[in-house]
Amino acid sequence: MKVLMFGWEFPPHILGGLGTASYGLTRGLANQGNVDITFCLPKPWGDEDRSFMKIVGMNTVPVVWRDTTLENVQSRYPWMDAQDYFRFRDHIYSDFSNIYTDDLGCIGFSGRYPDNLHEEINNYSIVAGVVARSMDFDIIHSHDWLTYPAGIHAKQVSGKPLVIHVHATDFDRSRGNVNPTVYAIEKDGMDNADHIMCVSELTRQTVINKYHQDPRKVSTMHNAVEPLPQEIQDIVPQKKPGEKVVTFLGRITMQKGPEYFVEAAALVLKRTHDIRFCMAGSGDMMNAMIRLAAERGIADRFHFPGFMKGRQVYECLKASDVYVMPSVSEPFGISPLEAMQCEVPSIISKQSGCAEILEKCIKVDYWDINAMADAMYSICNNQALYEYLKVEGKKEVDAITWDKVGARILARYKKLLGQK
Questions:
Q1: Pairwise CA distance, residues 87 & 258, whole Å
Q2: Which is the most buried residue in 67, 96, 168, 210, by most CB within 10 A?
Q3: Cα atoms in the Cβ-side hemisphere of radius 13 Å centred on 307
Q4: Closest of 200, 180, 143, 117 to residue 16, by C-alpha
Q5: Alpha helix (H) ranges present in 114-210?
Q6: Rounded CA gap, 216 and 211, in Å?
Q7: Residue 91: what pLDDT?
């Protein structure tokens, strides 16, 4: 089966959970055998893992033909072989006089989330039409709202079924203060999809009730985690003896509930002074959280190390005694699974999708700072509770694999295509 996928992030260059999920999902799907995946990104950086699928940079697909030789094209874009060259050359759209292209007829992309994001989304969908005309595939799979227009365009061009993967909705990102433009893009993607995959039942219900979708075409497809590579397993935790560390790791934004973490920490520090708190990450609420910690008089016990990625994430987790995810609205939330892989007892909000599949952790309402503080204090001071969550939590997440997710996705593809 040949799958044409549209994504926006891919490791090692990620800004959130979308890229992590895209990697795990595609790898799990590829491991099913007889699945050929072409994954489109606005701007690959060249160091992505291409061992199990083909990655196409949308910034390397010509939409205007410049009568350029194969040699000139390959000097700029080594991934394009002769077959790709002739396919794209024979399926170029037309002269987009109102869109800037380079000397090879390609549209530029930032590969991030720039101020002109909606322009890049539109340009991405234009290139998707060229890709869909030139590629041979059976099904289309679009990840998150930024690529829904691309998926719709590819479906219109090819007539192939479209699956969209809802990793989050604007209701999650905005605490209900929905951007009408984003909502319209999301709803258009859902209306045109042949099937909608959601990362949790929580998200599925949002799609059904807020976007008015037929429940029969919406399914839950929980995320998973990749097995830890040996070099990560071998990381030696850097801990000070006699001192506990409680960690928040993620985007410091409204959706993630960082203020509840700070308020709970202040309550804990009224009972003990032997715990440090780490808020790792970056976001538009970071300065506000630094001020809040100062106002509560706990700045000397609080650390803000900034954005982390790759090995840094696991070094931070392994140095922690407790991981906390107090998200206000979390479609899934992979980070607690990563923490539990590292044998770190975790506290998660009941308002998160991963709470649907995790049992060996403590669940609290995001707004209940007293319950959150009690859980932090208990794990740090009750050795039996700490050991139980450490050991049983790791056992639980080790059984939540992307290969199982890949098998379920492949089964859904076959059902859509009428295959047994």
A1: 49
A2: 168
A3: 10
A4: 143
A5: 117-134, 148-158, 170-174, 180-192, 201-210
A6: 14
A7: 60
CB atoms < 10 A from the CB of 276, how many?
Answer: 20
- Tens of pLDDT, residue by residue over 199-258, are 999 999 999 999 999 999 999 999 999 899 899 888 888 777 888 999 999 999 999 999
C-alpha 271 chain-centroid distance: 37
Q: Is 12 helix (H, G, I), strand (E, B) or coil?
A: coil
Tens of pLDDT, residue by residue over 350-367, are 999 999 999 999 999 999
Q: Angle of helix 82-89 relative to helix 117-134, nearest 10 degrees?
A: 100
pLDDT of residue 100: 64
pLDDT of amino acid 89: 66
**Amino acid letter at 344?**
V
Q: How many residues does the chain have?
A: 420
State pLDDT tens for residues 68-77: 677 776 776 6
* Environment class of 57 (CB within 10 Å of its CB; exposed 0-12, middle 13-18, buried 19+): buried
Q: For 259-274, what is the mean pLDDT?
A: 96
Contacts from 393-399 at CB under 8 Å and sequence distance 24+? 393/340, 393/343, 393/344, 393/345, 393/346, 393/360, 393/361, 394/340, 394/341, 394/343, 395/360, 396/340, 396/358, 396/359, 396/360, 397/225, 397/337, 397/340, 397/341, 397/358, 398/227, 398/341
CA–CA distance from 148 to each of 41, 113, 114, 279 (Å)?
13, 16, 18, 33
Give residue 174's Cα distance to chain centre: 17
H-helix or E-strand containing 22?
A: helix 17-30
Distance CA 161, CA 247 (A): 43
Q: Cα(334)–Cα(98) distance, rounded to whole angstroms?
A: 41
